[in-house]
Automatic annotation (TrEMBL):
Pfam families named in the record: Bact_transglu_N, DUF2126, Transglut_core
Protein name: Transglutaminase-like domain-containing protein
InterPro entries: Bac_transglu_N, DUF2126, Papain-like_cys_pep_sf, Transglutaminase-like
UniProt cross-references to SMART domains, sorted A to Z: TGc
The Transglutaminase-like domain, residue ranges: 172-242
Length: 1110
């Protein structure tokens, strides 16, 4: 995030005639205490006939004294400097213990030195009145300084004042407006009156245009501010013009006790007419890519044009490609909460998920139904997770017509149990069901009594042999009587249930009466929706049959328009809309007779529509239905009932079965994130539109896709952004029609590890959630080559055609797995390609799981566009080549920024060779984000650079109480060490006394290696006895002179020992924390011989855990 800028400041005086000039003093040299690195500086004076001498004044400022031996007609002073602007945290300092709270007294030994900066005159009436308004209650010194600075900013408006000199504080307060130097001098006087030593500072102010557009352009100018001396912190800059503390945009030039001695230029000439001209310009020389504004408008226009071009190439090969995704978000205002770090569920995640689902439905799926249902249930979690599905019809007609009739379950409602009965009566009438078939359902008093009986009462009794109770019921009749007595006190109904069933191909609904041993319907214990707690085992001696799923490959008749009602159906009183019919006649309203009533004793009936009131909202539970048309009809019936009763409802239960007549997306919780399973897009414009809508609506709710670690590391959401590739329908899937494309992509990814590591999160490696095909199982490549040969043989048997989809799936399924054989946790997940066991798994979908949610929506689109281009490339020209046995090179080489970048550029070069004009510069933000710069230092000949590298975090052994969490060893980190100007045989790179094994890169003079080290000592790690290796002392040693000529120290945490309690609020603060951990400076060791730490298996890595610690 650093920006190198060139600043030019020119001041010219033109005289009416040549005049004699006294010596001039120029105070335009950056002060030594400035924290912004100044890389180059020059001062040019005209006329050329002059003598220039550099000196320091009593305050330590660098002054240029210029003597003109001859009369001059023109005087020009020109300053050029090169500065590296990187975020600086102005609050990054300590305060001595005795000065933490104001008021305080300076130590006696400091007072004599600070005396010139404490001199003040008696305040005038306005200044005295201003000082009277200062709260004198003891407070933290930094809080006092900030409050005073902002109060001065509020009291004095800024204006440009060309007159020389500085206004008296009385006049500044009277006017209420002043220049920067007026406000600065006022602040200095106020600070001195309050007991602070303060000085006046003149310097340059640099403001760079931010992604927000404020300021609108880069600018620089001469500026003035104040500095207060705080014991322990030193001089702290306070800019009264802005109300902020001085940071990287403030370059001090002269710091003095009085403004009169801080002017940029001072001197005298003979009396003469003078014209002054000045200018300040700033130019960005070098700018590292940033994820906050990854692409400018021109670059994004080129990306967009390339996206359209890729669409054309996909059409040319008949790819019929659709692309969906699983982006994830976190809450910006509560980044430390468990639900936004490790926990799947939390107090705010459901509320935000419900709001986001409704907002997305309004913009992306008008006429959609929101379905609140049960999500995934992982081992170790007490209850299933929730899921909010947004379902709609693909024919453009509404599935749900009135959004106002969908209640928001995240807010409390006012409905009562009587409303549930009313709503069920309306549903019964709409279906033509005889009255009385809908029955009340109750919580089970027997289960409640048993649970209460299991609780201990009073003090725990002494252990003794149980004595039979003579009053206990001894026969079946007595037990039945006891249960009947309990049932008599069952209380109010928990809801209402209507047995309802419909199989695929049925023309009407089937209902009936459930015959129950206890006479009434009692729920199983729990707090789930009543539709999930029906006592199905009590309904019939026969087991429920398994109904076949409808094939995703079979054609489906069109749906009827929502709201059509066939003749012969009973109309609900006051209904606003007629009921929805099955509609299997190409969109015409079909005939739907009244529901058929059957005796469930003869024909088992195990499904039902249920109504209950929870949290003040009527909830309607939909039964499982194998046909989307039937589900659409029942949804229409429920909406008509809600309209007739005026009751907004919450729809829950089973989701409509998927086919090409319906579409959906889901909002679900995942550990630490909120996940949106977005529906597939058929082309690049759709993908861009949906990405923009998603990011806008998420941002409106305070959801973001980035966060910062305590140490300043910039991360994405922490969740995945997996890409799902398929077709509009399963038969359209390119990977089922052209399995050679799937083989090409697997081979391409195996050849280029950068595709696995550049876009992934911090959790990579063989035990991650998306291991590569060659990670973990050493024999996997051997077996995969056999599978590829089988695909070739099967294709030949089909005479050049395509092998059956099930055979393609079975050939690859057991190889696209993780270490445990899990088909879902693999980089290439073919779980839903063509699963022989389930129709819902036969979607023709390939899921790429090695993609993390990046921090900007444009980055999401670019990585998706790269994948689209690679699919088109593989479809146009098969990529078949022997698989590479990378061995230890896989991690030793491709986890480092240099070789990862080289490898991804090889991928884009291959694309360009096939006619895809992918620009390497589009990947710059990914490289900067994945491998942030940690520090750099240069001498005359050498340059040392440190970047973060990727480190696999291995899963640890299972421990008791871990639940769904699997602990990983996150204590190990890896850095890349790069040296430019390196001479083999002369230079050696040393870290903590051990030689770093660096390797040539192909660029003359540039070598790269890495250091692996234990950064933290966590309570559970792979090597609990290995201590922390930080700080890392790195030097480049010149063996010819035995001197370390360039080097620096990298600290794992703050070098001064500060402990951060909160995460960085902005990217600038995060960058400042990272930058503070690298301290440039070679050790200057003489006569030093490095101890070798080179292990045999990893040619580029020094692993400090394997060498003896010094």
């Amino acid at each position: 995030m650093s920006t190198r800028i060139a600043l030019e400041h020119r001041t010219a005086y033109t005289f009416d005639r040549p005049v004699a000039a006294a010596p001039h003093i120029v105070r335009l040299c950056p002060a030594t205490h400035g924290r912004t690195p100044i890389l180059a500086y020059s001062l040019q004076i005209e006329p050329a006939e002059h003598f220039l001498t550099w000196l320091q004044d009593p305050a330590g400022n660098h002054l240029a004294r210029i003597v003109f031996p001859e009369p001059i007609a023109r005087l020009e002073v020109k300053v050029d400097l090169l500065a590296e602007l990187q975020p600086i945290n102005p609050f990054d300092f300590f305060v001595e213990e005795g000065a933490e709270f104001w008021p305080f007294a300076y130590p006696q030994e400091l007072w004599a030195e600070l005396a010139p900066f404490s001199v003040t005159d008696a305040p005038g009436p306005r200044l005295a009145a201003w000082l009277d308004g200062v709260d004198r209650t003891p407070a933290r010194v930094i809080d006092v300084l900030v409050a005073i600075n902002q109060r001065v900013r509020a009291a004095v408006d800024y204006s440009v004042r060309m007159e020389p000199g500085v206004l008296d504080p009385e006049e500044t307060l009277e006017r209420g407006v002043g220049s920067c130097r007026d406000s600065a001098w006022l602040l200095v006087r106020i600070l001195r009156e309050l007991g602070f030593a303060a000085r006046f500072v003149s310097g340059y102010s640099i403001q760079l245009r931010a992604p927000s557009g404020i300021p609108p352009r880069d600018s620089t100018d001469l500026h003035a501010w104040a500095e207060a001396y705080v014991p322990g912190a030193g001089w702290v800059g306070l800019d009264a013009t802005s109300g902020y503390l001085a940071a990287e945009g403030h370059i001090p030039l002269a710091c003095t006790a009085d403004p009169a001695t801080a002017g940029p230029i001072s001197g005298a000439t003979e009396p003469v007419g003078t014209h002054m001209d000045f200018s300040t310009t700033i130019t960005r020389v070098r700018e590292t890519p940033t994820v906050t504004e990854p692409y400018d408008d021109e670059t994004w226009a080129a990306v967009d044009a390339f996206g359209h071009a890729v669409d054309g190439r996909l059409q040319a090969v008949d790819a019929r490609l659709t692309m969906g995704g699983e982006p994830t978000f976190v809450a910006a205002d509560d980044p430390d909460a468990d639900e936004w770090n490790v926990a799947a569920l939390g107090p705010t995640k459901y509320v935000l998920g419900a709001k986001l689902a409704r907002r997305l439905a309004d913009r992306m799926a008008p006429g959609a139904m929101l379905l609140h249902t049960q999500g995934k249930w992982y081992p170790g979690e007490p209850l299933p997770r929730w899921k909010i599905g947004v379902h709609w019809r693909t024919d453009g007609l509404p599935l749900w017509r009135e959004p106002r009739l969908l209640a928001d379950p995240s807010t409390p409602g006012t409905a009562t149990a009587a409303d549930a009965e009313r709503l069920m009566d309306a549903i019964v009438a709409a279906l033509g069901v005889p009255a009385g078939l809908a029955v009340p359902v109750y919580e089970d008093p027997v289960a409640q009594a048993l649970a209460e009986a299991m609780l201990p009462a009073g003090e725990p009794p002494e252990l003794e042999t149980p004595v039979p109770d003579p009053d206990a019921p001894a026969d079946a009749d007595a037990r039945t009587a006891l249960i009947a007595a309990l049932d008599a006190g069952r209380g109010e109904p928990a809801g209402w249930v209507l047995p309802l069933h419909r199989t695929a191909g049925d023309e009407t609904w089937r209902t009936g009466v459930w015959h129950l041993r206890r006479g009434a319907l009692f729920l199983m214990p729990g707090d789930s929706p009543i539709g999930l707690r029906l006592p199905l085992a009590s309904l019939n001696w026969r087991a429920a049959g398994v109904e076949p799923e409808l094939s995703r490959f079979a054609p489906h008749p069109a749906l009827a328009p929502a709201g059509s009602r066939p003749p012969g159906i009973v109309t609900m009183p006051g209904a606003m809309h007629p009921a929805v019919t099955t509609g299997l006649q190409n969109g015409a309203a079909g005939q739907r007779p009244a529901a058929v009533t059957t005796d469930t004793g003869d024909t088992p009936l195990y499904t039902a529509v249920c109504v209950q009131v929870r949290d003040g909202h009527p909830h309607v539970f939909l039964p499982p239905l194998p046909d989307f048309a039937h589900a659409a009809e029942l949804v229409g019936v429920v909406e008509d009932a809600a309209s007739a009763t005026g009751l907004p409802v919450v729809i829950e239960g089973y989701a409509p079965s998927g086919d090409d007549r319906g579409q959906r997306f889901d909002v679900t919780p995942d550990p630490g994130v909120l996940e949106i399973n977005i529906h597939p897009s058929a082309n690049w414009p759709e993908l861009c539109e949906r990405s923009a809508i998603l990011s806008e609506e998420a941002a409106a709710l305070g959801l973001v896709s980035e966060k910062f670690a305590l140490d300043g590391i910039h991360e994405g959401s922490g969740g995945g952004s997996h890409l799902t590739l398929g077709g509009a329908t399963p038969p359209d899937s390119l990977f089922l029609r052209r399995p050679d494309v799937l083989r090409s992509m697997i081979t391409l990814w195996q050849h280029h590890p950068s595709l696995s590591y550049l876009f992934s999160g911090r959790f990579v490696g063989p035990t991650s959630q998306a291991p590569r095909v060659d990670e973990g199982r050493h024999e996997n490549l051997y077996e995969l080559e056999i599978a590829f040969n089988e695909l070739d043989r099967l294709t030949a048997l089909e005479h050049g055609g395509t092998p059956p989809p099930w055979l393609v799936d079975r050939t690859l399924r057991n190889l696209m797995v993780d270490l445990t054989g899990n088909t879902h946790r693999a980089e290439f997940c073919i779980d839903k390609l063509f699963n022989p066991r389930s129709e819902s798994g036969r979607l023709g979908v390939l899921e790429l799981r090695s993609f993390e949610m990046p921090p900007h929506p444009q980055l999401s689109l670019v990585q998706a566009l790269l994948v689209r281009a690679l699919v088109a490339r593989c479809a146009a020209a098969p990529y078949h080549a022997p698989l590479v046995r990378w061995g230890t090179e896989l991690h030793d080489r491709f986890l480092l920024p240099w070789w990862c970048e080289a490898d991804i550029h090889a991928v884009t070069a291959d694309l360009r060779s096939h006619g895809f004009a992918f620009d390497d510069r589009w990947l710059g933000p990914f490289l900067a984000f994945r491998f942030p710069l940690l520090g750099e230092v240069a001498s005359d000949e050498l340059r040392l650079e440190l970047r973060m590298a990727v480190e696999p975090w291995n899963v640890l052994g299972e421990e008791a109480g871990t639940g769904t969490a699997r602990y990983v060893d996150s204590s190990v980190e890896r850095l890349q060490v790069r040296v430019d100007g390196f001479t083999p045989g002369r230079h050696v790179v040393v870290c903590n006394g051990h030689e770093v094994p660096v390797q040539p890169t192909g660029t003359p003079g540039t070598v790269v290696g890495s250091v692996r080290f234990s950064a933290w000592q966590t309570w559970s790690s792979m090597h609990p006895t290995v201590g922390v290796h930080g700080p890392l002392r790195l030097d480049v040693v010149d063996t010819w002179s035995s001197v370390a000529t360039v080097g620096g120290t990298y600290h794992v945490s703050h070098p001064g020992g500060r402990h951060y309690d909160t995460r960085p609020a902005t990217g600038e603060e995060a960058q400042a924390r990272r930058a503070s951990r690298f301290v440039p400076g070679a050790s200057g060791l003489i006569g030093f011989t490095a101890a070798s730490g080179r292990p045999g298996e990893y040619a580029r890595t020094l692993d400090l855990r394997r060498v003896r610690w010094h």
